[in-house]
Amino acid sequence: MPDTHVAIEPAILYFGTPVVLISTQNEDGTANLAPMSSAWWLGWRCMLGLQTASKTPQNMIRTGQCVLNLASPEQVDAVNRLARLTGTGSIPDLKQRLGYSYEPRKFEVAGLTPIASQTVAAPRVLECPIQLEAVVAERHGIMNGDPQVAGLISAFEVRITRVHVHPSLLMDGHKNRIDPAKWQPLIMNFQKLYGVSGTEIVPSRLAEIEERAYRMPDVDRAREEALRPALAAC
Question: Domain of life here (predicted)?
Answer without folding.
Answer: Bacteria
